[in-house]
Design goal:
By secondary structure, the chain is an alpha+beta fold. It folds into 2 domains: 140 residues, Hotdog Thioesterase (Thiol Ester Dehydrase, Chain A), CATH 3.10.129.10; 101 residues, Thiol Ester Dehydrase, Chain A. Strands 1, 2, 3, 4, 5, 6, 7, 8, 9, 10 and 11 form an 11-stranded antiparallel sheet that branches. α1 runs antiparallel to α3.
Protein backbone atom coordinates (compact mmCIF):
# COMPACT_ATOMS: atom_id res chain seq x y z
CA UNK A 1 0.00 0.00 0.00
CA UNK A 2 2.15 2.87 -1.29
CA UNK A 3 -0.37 5.63 -0.54
CA UNK A 4 -2.82 5.81 2.31
CA UNK A 5 -5.88 8.08 2.71
CA UNK A 6 -8.33 8.96 5.46
CA UNK A 7 -10.64 11.80 6.40
CA UNK A 8 -11.20 13.81 9.57
CA UNK A 9 -13.97 16.15 10.67
CA UNK A 10 -12.87 19.52 12.04
CA UNK A 11 -14.33 19.57 15.54
CA UNK A 12 -14.98 22.55 17.81
CA UNK A 13 -11.90 21.71 19.85
CA UNK A 14 -9.78 21.72 16.69
CA UNK A 15 -10.54 25.35 15.85
CA UNK A 16 -9.22 28.73 16.92
CA UNK A 17 -11.21 31.75 18.10
CA UNK A 18 -12.08 32.60 14.47
CA UNK A 19 -13.42 29.10 13.74
CA UNK A 20 -10.51 27.97 11.56
CA UNK A 21 -8.60 24.71 11.99
CA UNK A 22 -5.67 25.33 14.34
CA UNK A 23 -2.22 24.49 12.97
CA UNK A 24 -1.41 22.13 15.89
CA UNK A 25 -4.72 20.32 15.25
CA UNK A 26 -3.81 19.89 11.58
CA UNK A 27 -0.41 18.55 12.62
CA UNK A 28 -2.20 16.13 14.94
CA UNK A 29 -4.33 14.84 12.03
CA UNK A 30 -1.20 14.36 9.94
CA UNK A 31 0.46 12.53 12.80
CA UNK A 32 -2.58 10.26 13.14
CA UNK A 33 -2.65 9.23 9.49
CA UNK A 34 1.13 8.73 9.48
CA UNK A 35 0.71 6.36 12.43
CA UNK A 36 -2.07 4.42 10.72
CA UNK A 37 -0.13 4.09 7.48
CA UNK A 38 2.97 2.93 9.36
CA UNK A 39 0.86 0.21 10.97
CA UNK A 40 -0.41 -0.85 7.53
CA UNK A 41 3.22 -1.05 6.35
CA UNK A 42 4.08 -3.14 9.47
CA UNK A 43 6.50 -0.52 10.78
CA UNK A 44 4.11 1.09 13.26
CA UNK A 45 4.25 1.35 17.04
CA UNK A 46 2.72 -2.11 17.56
CA UNK A 47 5.81 -3.55 15.87
CA UNK A 48 8.44 -1.06 17.03
CA UNK A 49 7.59 -0.56 20.71
CA UNK A 50 8.23 -4.22 21.68
CA UNK A 51 11.71 -3.64 20.21
CA UNK A 52 12.16 -0.44 22.24
CA UNK A 53 11.91 1.71 19.11
CA UNK A 54 9.73 4.54 17.88
CA UNK A 55 9.42 7.14 15.14
CA UNK A 56 10.30 10.79 15.83
CA UNK A 57 9.52 13.74 13.59
CA UNK A 58 12.72 15.66 12.78
CA UNK A 59 11.66 18.27 10.21
CA UNK A 60 8.40 19.51 8.73
CA UNK A 61 7.47 21.86 5.91
CA UNK A 62 3.78 22.73 5.61
CA UNK A 63 2.35 24.89 2.80
CA UNK A 64 -1.22 26.13 3.24
CA UNK A 65 -3.64 27.49 0.66
CA UNK A 66 -6.47 27.79 3.17
CA UNK A 67 -7.51 26.42 6.55
CA UNK A 68 -10.93 24.72 6.80
CA UNK A 69 -13.68 25.80 9.16
CA UNK A 70 -15.36 23.97 12.01
CA UNK A 71 -17.57 21.16 10.70
CA UNK A 72 -15.71 20.67 7.41
CA UNK A 73 -14.14 17.36 6.51
CA UNK A 74 -10.45 17.17 5.72
CA UNK A 75 -9.15 14.42 3.42
CA UNK A 76 -5.46 13.55 3.82
CA UNK A 77 -3.30 11.39 1.57
CA UNK A 78 0.14 10.29 2.76
CA UNK A 79 2.99 8.13 1.57
CA UNK A 80 6.63 7.35 2.32
CA UNK A 81 9.03 8.72 -0.28
CA UNK A 82 12.83 9.07 -0.02
CA UNK A 83 14.82 6.96 2.42
CA UNK A 84 18.48 6.62 3.40
CA UNK A 85 20.31 4.96 6.31
CA UNK A 86 19.32 7.66 8.79
CA UNK A 87 15.90 9.01 7.89
CA UNK A 88 12.79 8.48 5.81
CA UNK A 89 10.66 11.18 4.19
CA UNK A 90 6.87 11.24 4.36
CA UNK A 91 4.59 13.29 2.11
CA UNK A 92 1.11 14.71 2.72
CA UNK A 93 -1.57 16.15 0.46
CA UNK A 94 -4.62 17.67 2.14
CA UNK A 95 -7.98 18.30 0.45
CA UNK A 96 -11.35 19.76 1.39
CA UNK A 97 -14.67 17.97 0.86
CA UNK A 98 -14.94 19.41 -2.66
CA UNK A 99 -11.69 17.72 -3.63
CA UNK A 100 -9.69 20.94 -3.78
CA UNK A 101 -6.14 20.83 -2.41
CA UNK A 102 -5.82 23.12 0.59
CA UNK A 103 -2.35 22.18 1.89
CA UNK A 104 0.70 20.01 1.30
CA UNK A 105 3.55 18.92 3.52
CA UNK A 106 6.92 17.23 3.45
CA UNK A 107 8.43 15.69 6.58
CA UNK A 108 11.54 13.88 7.75
CA UNK A 109 11.31 11.06 10.31
CA UNK A 110 14.02 9.22 12.25
CA UNK A 111 14.04 5.91 14.09
CA UNK A 112 14.55 6.35 17.81
CA UNK A 113 15.80 4.07 20.62
CA UNK A 114 13.33 4.74 23.44
CA UNK A 115 15.62 3.52 26.23
CA UNK A 116 18.96 4.97 25.18
CA UNK A 117 17.30 8.11 23.72
CA UNK A 118 19.37 8.07 20.57
CA UNK A 119 18.87 7.60 16.84
CA UNK A 120 18.99 4.18 15.22
CA UNK A 121 19.85 3.29 11.64
CA UNK A 122 16.91 2.38 9.45
CA UNK A 123 18.57 -0.87 8.38
CA UNK A 124 17.31 -2.28 11.69
CA UNK A 125 13.91 -2.44 9.96
CA UNK A 126 12.79 -4.35 6.88
CA UNK A 127 12.12 -2.37 3.71
CA UNK A 128 8.64 -0.94 3.12
CA UNK A 129 6.62 0.23 0.16
CA UNK A 130 7.55 3.72 -1.01
CA UNK A 131 6.62 6.10 -3.80
CA UNK A 132 9.29 8.54 -5.01
CA UNK A 133 6.69 11.23 -5.80
CA UNK A 134 6.97 14.36 -3.65
CA UNK A 135 4.07 16.45 -2.34
CA UNK A 136 5.85 19.69 -3.32
CA UNK A 137 9.15 20.87 -4.77
CA UNK A 138 10.36 22.09 -1.36
CA UNK A 139 13.75 20.72 -0.27
CA UNK A 140 15.16 20.99 3.24
CA UNK A 141 18.33 23.09 3.29
CA UNK A 142 19.85 25.13 6.10
CA UNK A 143 17.95 25.48 9.34
CA UNK A 144 15.78 28.62 9.54
CA UNK A 145 17.39 31.69 11.07
CA UNK A 146 16.91 32.03 14.83
CA UNK A 147 15.09 35.00 16.36
CA UNK A 148 16.92 37.64 18.38
CA UNK A 149 17.13 36.27 21.93
CA UNK A 150 16.42 39.80 23.21
CA UNK A 151 13.09 39.97 21.39
CA UNK A 152 10.28 41.19 23.68
CA UNK A 153 7.98 38.55 22.16
CA UNK A 154 8.56 35.75 24.62
CA UNK A 155 6.43 33.27 26.60
CA UNK A 156 7.41 30.85 29.37
CA UNK A 157 5.83 27.42 29.93
CA UNK A 158 5.98 24.37 32.10
CA UNK A 159 5.53 20.96 30.44
CA UNK A 160 2.16 19.40 31.33
CA UNK A 161 1.31 15.72 31.73
CA UNK A 162 -0.89 15.88 28.63
CA UNK A 163 2.03 17.16 26.53
CA UNK A 164 3.83 13.80 26.74
CA UNK A 165 3.28 11.14 24.07
CA UNK A 166 3.93 7.39 23.84
CA UNK A 167 7.63 8.00 23.14
CA UNK A 168 7.98 9.56 26.60
CA UNK A 169 8.65 13.13 25.43
CA UNK A 170 6.65 16.18 24.36
CA UNK A 171 4.53 15.50 21.29
CA UNK A 172 5.58 17.37 18.14
CA UNK A 173 2.26 19.24 17.76
CA UNK A 174 2.82 20.89 21.15
CA UNK A 175 5.95 22.63 19.87
CA UNK A 176 3.86 24.45 17.29
CA UNK A 177 1.43 25.56 20.01
CA UNK A 178 4.39 26.91 21.99
CA UNK A 179 5.88 28.65 18.95
CA UNK A 180 2.63 30.50 18.22
CA UNK A 181 1.94 31.67 21.78
CA UNK A 182 4.17 34.81 21.82
CA UNK A 183 2.84 36.03 18.45
CA UNK A 184 0.99 39.29 19.29
CA UNK A 185 -2.80 38.97 19.32
CA UNK A 186 -3.37 41.77 16.81
CA UNK A 187 -0.92 40.26 14.33
CA UNK A 188 -2.42 36.77 14.78
CA UNK A 189 -5.96 38.11 14.25
CA UNK A 190 -5.03 39.92 11.04
CA UNK A 191 -2.84 37.23 9.43
CA UNK A 192 -3.06 33.58 8.41
CA UNK A 193 -0.10 31.22 8.20
CA UNK A 194 0.69 30.15 4.65
CA UNK A 195 3.97 28.32 5.25
CA UNK A 196 5.51 26.60 8.27
CA UNK A 197 9.01 25.14 8.57
CA UNK A 198 9.69 23.39 11.85
CA UNK A 199 12.90 21.65 12.99
CA UNK A 200 12.95 19.46 16.11
CA UNK A 201 16.40 19.62 17.70
CA UNK A 202 16.27 18.12 21.21
CA UNK A 203 13.67 16.41 23.36
CA UNK A 204 11.62 18.10 26.08
CA UNK A 205 10.33 16.14 29.07
CA UNK A 206 7.79 16.41 31.88
CA UNK A 207 8.87 18.87 34.59
CA UNK A 208 11.00 21.09 32.36
CA UNK A 209 10.30 24.77 31.76
CA UNK A 210 10.98 26.55 28.50
CA UNK A 211 10.98 29.88 26.73
CA UNK A 212 9.28 30.43 23.38
CA UNK A 213 10.97 33.34 21.61
CA UNK A 214 9.48 35.05 18.55
CA UNK A 215 10.64 37.80 16.21
CA UNK A 216 8.52 39.16 13.36
CA UNK A 217 10.01 40.86 10.31
CA UNK A 218 7.45 41.80 7.68
CA UNK A 219 5.42 38.71 6.84
CA UNK A 220 7.84 36.22 8.41
CA UNK A 221 8.13 35.16 12.04
CA UNK A 222 11.16 33.41 13.49
CA UNK A 223 10.77 31.10 16.48
CA UNK A 224 12.99 29.30 18.97
CA UNK A 225 12.04 26.96 21.81
CA UNK A 226 14.71 26.95 24.55
CA UNK A 227 14.84 24.91 27.76
CA UNK A 228 17.64 24.78 30.34
CA UNK A 229 19.93 26.78 28.07
CA UNK A 230 19.50 24.40 25.14
CA UNK A 231 17.53 25.03 21.96
CA UNK A 232 14.87 22.36 21.50
CA UNK A 233 13.16 23.48 18.28
CA UNK A 234 13.29 26.22 15.68
CA UNK A 235 10.64 27.40 13.28
CA UNK A 236 9.87 29.89 10.53
CA UNK A 237 6.32 30.86 9.67
CA UNK A 238 5.31 32.80 6.55
CA UNK A 239 2.11 34.84 6.95
CA UNK A 240 -0.45 36.36 4.62
CA UNK A 241 -2.45 39.39 5.68
CA UNK A 242 -6.20 38.78 5.78
Amino acid sequence: MAKYSDDYRVRVGDTDSCGFLKLPSLLGMMQEIAKDHAEALEIGSSVLMPQGLGWALAKLRLDIDRLPNCGERVFIKTWASARNKIYTAREFLIYDDLGDKIASARSIWVLFDLKRRRLERLDKLPSWTRDEEFASDFEFGDMPEAPDTQSPMKSNFGVRKDDIDMNGHVNNAIYLTWALEPVPDDFYASHRAKGVELWFLNEVFRGQRLDSICQIEGGISKHSIVSEGRERARAKIEWAEI
